[in-house]
Each structure stands twice: as structure tokens, then as C-alpha cells.
Write a structure and sequence with these properties.
about 230 residues, alpha/beta, Alpha/beta knot, 2 domains, five-stranded parallel beta sheet, two-stranded antiparallel ribbon, 8 helices, about 40% helix
Length: about 230
């Protein structure tokens, strides 16, 4: 699978993806990853990628010409969808990551400043994706999150494919507590059931623990939403 990233900070991606399973997959040629400097597609001596917004307002907006031309230059090598990292986009989750891992590649555009001229979305028929409801300085870190989530689902990236089936969001029966040696550390003991050798009991315990964790997470989310609603009414 091929990932092409359009960004004004291409050097950010080198250190991150020289490490871990994705880095090893790149070395083996299972994954291709290239970060492209958006400024290479500007047409002025200052290599300007932004300008003031029509209608006024604070900040600057990324110009459409360099972004569209950058993506068009990649089309021969990468026929995958264009992704814009936007806060109002589809929320990235395991289901979406799995869907995107079936694509031949992704072209990911990293926004900066107050956003990207909306004609980019229209011209490129881009898909907008968000990694959460919070503000970051730009799209580079969200792009890294997206790449890591998708790339590890590509066959041959993770050494043991069986571990993917036990990922936290693979289904509603995973996410139990994990333990390894030593069996006791600073008075904290591994649950006896995991040392019993009784695999039926172990599986039952794991399913119960996973269910309990999910219930606790759902309750925390519900409490947070309720608290925000109450604060909004004050």
C-alpha cells in the first residue's frame, strides 16, 4: 500500500516512520511512504502557500493551486482516495481504518493555518477525516495517526497476523487486562486464573473483563456528556 503525504513540513514524517512495525514494513517494501513538500508546487519566488481569507477574519487560508497541483502530480503513482484531515470529518475508528486499508493507497493533505480553500475538497472529491474533537497546530500529527492505524492492517505489516484479531477494537470481546512475568511485583499479583492452565476458565475470565472494561468506558463517556450538558445550562 502506498501513502503520499502533502505537507509544508515533510521532514516531520521521517523520524516517526523509521521506527516500529510500520518502519520495518517500509524497509521490506510492504508499505511505501513519501512526504511531499507543498511549497514545491507554488509559482512565486516566496513559495507562498497561504493568503488572506475572502470575507475577512483572522489568520490565513491555504491556497487551492499548490494543493490541487501537488495531488495531481501524484495521481500516476497513487490512485487511492484523497484525504483531508478536518475536525468536522468522519471520526477515525477501527472500522474506518479497516475500510481504508483495502485501498491501493491514500493521498493525505495536511492543512495548516485557518484551513484549506474549500475548492480543494470539491476539485479532488476529497474525503474528510477527523481524529477527535480538539485543536492541533496542523494536519501532520493526525496524518501520522491515520497512517499508523491503516498501515498495520495491511497484510504483511504486523509480524503475527493473529495479534490483529485481538486488537482492542477488533470486536466486542477483546480488550482484557494483560500480564506477563514476574507473577508478583511489589505485592501486585497476576490473577490466579491466568496461572491455572485451565483455558476454558481463562477465556471466560477474559471475556468478562473485556465486557466490564467496555461498560466502564461507556459510563465514563456518558458521565462526561452529561456534565457538559449541565455546565452548558448554567
Amino acid at each position: 500500500m502506498r501513502f503520499d503525504v502533502v505537507t509544508i513540513f515533510p521532514a516531520m514524517f521521517g523520524p516517526v516512520f523509521r521506527q516500529g512495525v510500520v518502519g520495518r514494513a517500509i524497509e521490506r517494501g510492504v508499505i511505501q511512504l513519501e512526504a511531499h513538500d507543498l511549497r514545491d508546487h507554488t509559482h512565486d519566488r516566496h513559495r507562498q502557500v497561504d493568503d488572506m481569507p475572502f470575507g475577512g477574519g483572522p489568520g490565513m487560508v491555504m491556497k487551492p493551486e499548490p494543493v490541487i497541483e501537488a495531488v495531481e502530480s501524484l495521481r500516476e503513482a497513487n490512485r487511492g482516495p484523497v484525504i483531508l484531515l478536518e475536525p468536522w470529518g468522519e471520526r477515525l475508528d477501527q472500522e474506518l481504518a479497516t475500510e481504508l486499508s483495502q485501498e491501493p493507497g491514500l493521498i493525505i493533505v495536511c492543512g495548516r493555518y485557518e484551513g484549506i480553500d474549500d475548492r480543494v475538497r470539491t476539485a479532488l472529491q476529497a474525503r474528510e477525516i477527523s481524529i477527535g474533537d480538539y485543536v492541533l497546530s496542523g494536519g501532520e500529527i493526525p496524518a501520522m495517526v491515520l497512517i499508523d492505524a491503516v498501515a498495520r492492517l495491511v497484510p504483511g505489516v504486523v509480524g503475527d497476523p493473529g495479534s490483529l484479531a485481538q486488537d482492542t477494537f477488533a470486536d466486542d470481546k477483546t480488550g482484557w487486562p494483560q500480564f506477563t512475568r514476574p507473577a508478583e511485583y511489589r505485592g501486585m499479583k497476576v490473577p490466579d486464573v491466568l496461572l491455572s492452565g485451565d483455558h476454558a476458565r481463562i477465556n471466560q475470565w477474559r471475556l468478562q473483563q473485556a465486557q466490564w472494561r467496555r461498560q466502564q468506558a461507556a459510563q465514563r463517556k456518558g458521565f462526561t456528556r452529561k456534565t457538559k450538558e449541565l455546565e452548558g445550562k448554567r
